[in-house]
């Protein structure tokens, strides 16, 4: 089986390839409007929009970082917020806040001739008090997953991929796709 992964993020493609090892992933970038809504709404719209253009089985993925004390902010605006205020800004917003619970959520939209299916994954944890580890991938240097004392940035890609929100969503997608083969 072969599916297209619509993304410009090669790290997401690599992660998908390791999890979906029985399925051939072809990466292609198609620009599509990103709705303002829930992760589910964004993934569903993106999958439908891209399928109308490509007419091949495909996936899109949207994810967000949600901080409990900030009422879920930055949530679906994670990329914009990261590009605007970065990890430093999130830490500044949480200065003096004891409730540092947070989570990452990923939603994958799969679309083929039968329509869209959504698969989600969540990893819970909390926001560290300082930036720790690799500073190259979003909020990873400030997020400590449950059961760990290191940030995603300190864990590195291999260890992070074992427990990530994206892995959980891709495993659900893999299970669904293997039933179709």
From TrEMBL:
Q: Which Pfam families match?
A: Ham1p_like (PF01725)
Q: Which GO terms describe its cellular component?
A: cytoplasm
Q: Which residues cross the membrane?
A: none
Q: Which SUPFAM superfamilies match?
A: ITPase-like (SSF52972)
Requisite cofactors: Mg(2+)
Give the residues the record marks as binding substrate. 7-12, 63, 137-140, 160, 165-166
Q: Where is the active site?
A: 62
Example of a GO MF term: nucleotide binding
> Reaction catalysed by this chain?
dITP + H2O = dIMP + diphosphate + H(+); XTP + H2O = XMP + diphosphate + H(+); ITP + H2O = IMP + diphosphate + H(+)
Keyword list, A-Z: Hydrolase, Magnesium, Metal-binding, Nucleotide metabolism, Nucleotide-binding
List ligand-binding residues for Mg(2+): 34, 62
* Cofactor binding notes: Binds 1 Mg(2+) ion per subunit.
What does the UniProt record say this protein does?
A: Pyrophosphatase that catalyzes the hydrolysis of nucleoside triphosphates to their monophosphate derivatives, with a high preference for the non-canonical purine nucleotides XTP (xanthosine triphosphate), dITP (deoxyinosine triphosphate) and ITP. Seems to function as a house-cleaning enzyme that removes non-canonical purine nucleotides from the nucleotide pool, thus preventing their incorporation into DNA/RNA and avoiding chromosomal lesions.
> By its UniProt entry, which HAMAP family does this protein fall under?
Non_canon_purine_NTPase (MF_01405)
Protein name, per record: dITP/XTP pyrophosphatase
According to the entry, what is the taxonomic lineage of the organism? Archaea, Methanobacteriati, Methanobacteriota, Methanomada group, Methanococci
């Amino acid at each position: 089986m072969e599916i297209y992964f619509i993304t410009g993020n090669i790290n997401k493609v690599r992660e998908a390839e390791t999890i979906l090892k029985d399925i051939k992933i072809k990466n292609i970038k198609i620009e599509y409007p990103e709705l303002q809504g829930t992760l589910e709404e964004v993934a569903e719209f993106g999958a439908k929009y891209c399928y109308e253009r490509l007419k091949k089985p495909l996936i899109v993925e949207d994810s967000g970082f949600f901080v409990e004390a900030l009422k879920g902010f930055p949530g679906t605006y994670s990329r914009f917020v990261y590009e605007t205020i970065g990890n430093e800004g999130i830490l500044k917003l949480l200065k003096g806040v004891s409730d540092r619970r947070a989570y990452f959520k990923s939603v994958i939209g799969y679309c083929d001739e039968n329509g869209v299916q959504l698969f989600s994954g969540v990893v819970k944890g909390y926001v560290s008090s300082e930036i720790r580890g690799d500073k190259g991938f979003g909020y990873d240097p400030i997020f400590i997953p449950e059961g760990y004392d290191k940030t995603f940035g300190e864990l590195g890609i291999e260890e992070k991929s074992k427990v990530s929100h994206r892995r959980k969503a891709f495993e659900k997608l893999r299970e669904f796709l293997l039933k179709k083969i």
